Amino acid sequence: MKAFVLVEPGRVGWHDAPEPVLNPYGAILRPVAIAPCSSDVHTVFGGGSRKAPNLVLGHECVAQVVEVGPYVQDFLPGEIVAVPAITPNWRDLGIQEHNFGHASQPFSGHQLGRSQPGVFAEKFGILDADTTLAKIPSGVTIEQALMCVDVVTTGFTGAECARISFGDTVVVMGIGPIGLMAVEGAKHLGAARIIAVGSRPVCVKLAEEFGATDILNYKDGELAERVKEMTGGQGADSVIICGGQDEAFSQAIDMVRYGIGTVSNVNYFGGTGNLPFPKFSGGRGMAGKTICTELARGGRVRIQRMMEMAKYGRIHPEKLITHHLEGLDKIEEALYLMKEKPQDLVKVMVQVNWE
Q1: Is residue 46 packed enough to be buried (19+ CB in 10 Å), middle (13-18) or exposed (0-12)?
Q2: How far is CA 79 from the centre of its chain?
Q3: Residue in 347, 351, 343 with CA at minimum distance from that of residue 322
Q4: In a structure prediction context, what are the per-residue pLDDT tens digits for the chain, which is 355 residues long?
Q5: Angle between helix 153-161 and 177-189 (nearest 10)
Q6: What value does the CA radius of gyration of the chain take, rounded to a whole number of Å?
Q7: CB neighbour class for 225 (10 Å; exposed up to 12, middle 13-18, buried from 19)
Q8: Contact (Cβ atoms closer than 8 angstroms) between residue 2 and residue 58
Q9: How far is 35 from 131, CA to CA, in rounded Å?
Q10: Beta partners for 116?
Q11: How far is CA 120 from CA 124, 126, 186, 257, in A?
Q12: CA 274 centroid distance within chain
């Protein structure tokens, strides 16, 4: 079958891949809407751990069920479903320890397009349909569902891990798609003031629409000092890192409050080496600042809850999609759009029609 793959680091292409094999608890699906993610860009162009030869890329997808295994109870061929980007093995013993992202090994929750073939193909498999695939509620559009499978849940994960209380001041570093949903998440969790850090006008406009009260352009001066000036010298209650280079990690520690502040990171820091930890603003190791580094939350129930937020108008993730392409063969163009980030881009959706 036709599949879009990582040929080798820095090079992608089309490959005649083997068709997926049906698991007794699983399903075989074909994509109807897909979106490349910044992490796909990192996988291809940013290095990291070695991947299998001709790995099928992609993990953001709404799909049609083609076939289900004999033990599947809740899904039938022909259904259109949301496919979570994070697909833990819910039968792993580590799940009982609430280790949803890394139960059996590091990043075991992130399988699609990483340790197993992804969704950028004519067909793909899911190992456990009933615990993974998400029913799309009536009234939720394909665009909304597609954004919920990764972007919404990742941004909301960042906000949840930031330990936000009513009335808090929260900084969101990076207002690409994930950061924009972190702004939404922070607003819904009770943040009073949300300081969004970014520069692209299309993202700034959406950040303000989604709940940002202040915008800081990282090009206009030292971020931490400006945040402290805006907060009477105390710093923010929480900082959510959703983008930026390595220095963003230390900047977040610089700008969060002593004693009760939380830094929540859902950003992908590529490469190897170390992230900087500032000794002074880190209280020389005794600042009382909490650091949370988290993989997005996934699974059927989680994504269905995200879509319920869209159904009842609490969030509008469809506004993230600024570019629409048609046809599976357009996924390469979509990937390069995400890599190059033109000024008018937030997210690109590729619709696949099989008729």
Answers
A1: middle
A2: 24
A3: 347
A4: 999 999 988 899 999 999 999 999 999 999 999 999 988 998 898 766 677 889 999 999 999 999 999 999 999 999 999 999 999 988 889 989 898 999 888 888 888 988 899 999 999 999 999 999 999 999 999 999 999 999 999 999 999 999 999 999 999 999 999 999 999 999 999 999 999 999 999 999 999 999 999 999 988 889 999 999 999 999 999 999 999 999 999 999 999 999 999 999 999 998 888 999 999 999 999 999 999 999 999 999 999 999 999 999 999 999 999 999 999 999 999 999 999 999 999 999 999 987 6
A5: 50
A6: 20
A7: exposed
A8: no
A9: 22
A10: 112
A11: 8, 13, 32, 43
A12: 23
Measured distance between the N- and C-terminal CA atoms of the chain, rounded to whole angstroms: 17
Name the DSSP class of 150.
Answer: I
- At residue 265, the 3 state secondary structure works out as strand
Look-up: residue for tokens 């039938």? 76
pTM of the model: 0.95
The two tokens of residue 110 are 């992130």
In 3-state terms, what secondary structure has residue 160?
helix
Block residue for tokens 């930026």? 244
CA-closest candidate to residue 235, choices 193, 267, 268, 265: 193
